[in-house]
């Protein structure tokens, strides 16, 4: 963009007459100027106006927790290699590289891929399978004492009708399994009232009927739980989640589990309440989490954790951890491979790297409702480049 055009847009910005398209052009130009680290006198003359734009752009308002308002532009340039944003996506993207990067070139548009949506397969204890995205809203499926209903919001609800006191033998009659594919997520309300959100490529296995001693479920992939309290007389019925090598005992709470097989650790994050995490066969190494804490268990080459395995506890940005449930990708010093694994799961694509993987770090958020082409465009603007072959994204540099 020519300087005269930039000055005209700045004038219209100050007068409040910018259109949405002009605002996007101005923001994009501003970010490109910042990335160029041009310290010429012309640039210095515009710095005051540019800083004014920065303070008020939607990008800055979203990023205020990451970049202090008082930081001058020239200092900001030296700290953040680049900042990227596409207005139409409805989110912001802050990109950091550990290496200096040239101004990115714009790659040709990619074949577009729609984002994921509500889709899942429910396998009932009798072996029957229900494709939930084909199930009509309000449709009721009866199975013994339980009925299954799909709500208007796309959630499935298990409703136990007149369930008698069950014996241990009766409650072992079978398990239901809810599984999401790539590009799918789903929400379920279990028979005890517990609500579970499943991210893409995840599985929840739970009893057809919970017994009166404990509520035990198993998870792979990523899930968010809002656990309902349940009692048998005066006795609390514990809720337990098995995720890989660990068992989580819940005391009426909200928490997130990330246990994807292609990630290097199982991460359990407590949002509200209290949970206790125990390692399989190693009860002495259990930990109790407080809200805002995350326990990480590094994965080894064995099914069971080694005697040296430890649960590492740290404070985390809970909002960022559960952002997927609220419709966002949220990154906090996320590496490029980790980011691309999230993209692969949500858009049902394969990712391949050509050459060495550079040490990028990403900070920011973007709506998961964006098409894949917009997400890739943002990455390309930051210096990451791709080519596509069918449903495979090849990271070329």
TrEMBL record:
Pfam families to which the protein is assigned, alphabetical: FecR, FecR_C
Protein name, entry field: FecR family protein
Lineage: superkingdom: Bacteria
InterPro entries the UniProt entry points to: FecR, FecR_C, Ferrdict_sens_TM
PANTHER family: PERIPLASMIC SIGNAL SENSOR AND SIGMA FACTOR ACTIVATOR FECR-RELATED, PROTEIN FECR
Keywords, comma-separated and alphabetical: Membrane, Transmembrane, Transmembrane helix
Membrane spanning residue stretches: 76-95
Organism: Larkinella arboricola
